[in-house]
């Protein structure tokens, strides 16, 4: 049997894991007419001196969760890389039109292995959707121009009190923000696509 001193030494050598990133996400999301709106908004962001934070393609793998759970679970893979981000989001609540929900994210070094692990635990893949995102920052708010198979969007995320003003700076009416998540819209889009294919 190892001595207490040796046991203490072994304990100090265990690898330290980074803590999870858990926060409250506040956002306003708007559906746009098309690519011309994205171009107009890019121009407006430049006028405001917004800082471009780059663009990337994102594969979103949405997993099934127990029916009573109010948490969503997905794995995001950026630009087809090896790494990924496991994201859970809690139930949304709305305060003056602003969507607020708890978000927890954990980076993983091997997205394929993380997917295998989640599936082995019983979290089957429900569906997959893709998104192209260009990110900007202005007035302390993150602004993303998003393109998905089912439309063009702009999303503002940051302190709740700052979002309405930032939206107005971009010529958007906070009262016209939509409530649906991308996952909900993707699920509906895929359902409609299957219906059309079945009728063909």
What is the average of the pLDDT values?
Answer: 90
Largest sheet: 8 strands, antiparallel, barrel
| CATH class value | Mainly Beta
Question: Quaternary arrangement of the chains shown?
Answer: single chain
Please tell me the CATH architecture by its name: Beta Barrel
Record keyword descriptors for this entry.
disordered N terminus, 200 residues, 5 helices, Hypothetical Protein Pfu-838710-001, alpha+beta
Structure at a glance:
With 200 residues, the chain is an alpha+beta fold. Helices cover 28% and strands 40% of the residues. The termini are far apart.
Question: Could you describe the 3D structure shown?
Answer:
The structure is a single chain. With 200 residues, the protein is an alpha+beta fold. It has a single domain (19-199), classed as Hypothetical Protein Pfu-838710-001, CATH 2.40.320.10. It is 28% helix and 40% strand. The protein contains five helices and nine strands. It has an eight-stranded antiparallel β-barrel with strand order 1-6-4-3-2-7-8-9, surrounded by four helices. Strand 8 (141-148) and strand 9 form a beta hairpin. Mean pLDDT is 90; it is low at 1-20.
């Amino acid at each position: 049997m190892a001595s207490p001193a040796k046991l203490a030494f072994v304990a100090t050598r265990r690898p330290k894991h980074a803590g999870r990133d858990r926060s409250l996400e506040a956002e306003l999301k708007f559906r746009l007419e098309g690519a011309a709106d994205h171009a107009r908004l890019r121009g407006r962001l430049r006028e405001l001196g917004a800082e471009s934070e780059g663009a990337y393609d994102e594969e979103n793998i949405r997993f099934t969760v127990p029916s009573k759970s109010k948490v969503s679970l997905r794995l995001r893979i950026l630009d087809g890389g090896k790494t990924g981000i496991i994201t859970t989001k809690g139930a949304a609540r709305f305060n003056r039109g602003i969507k607020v929900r708890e978000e927890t994210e954990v980076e993983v070094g091997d997205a394929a292995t993380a997917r295998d692990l989640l599936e082995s635990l019983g979290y089957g893949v429900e569906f997959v959707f893709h998104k192209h995102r260009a990110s900007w920052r202005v007035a302390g708010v993150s602004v993303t121009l998003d393109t998905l198979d089912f439309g063009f969007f702009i999303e503002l995320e940051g302190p709740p009190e700052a979002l309405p003003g930032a939206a107005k700076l971009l010529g958007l009416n906070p009262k016209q923000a939509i409530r649906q998540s991308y996952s909900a819209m993707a699920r509906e889009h895929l359902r409609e696509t299957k219906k059309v294919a079945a009728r063909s």
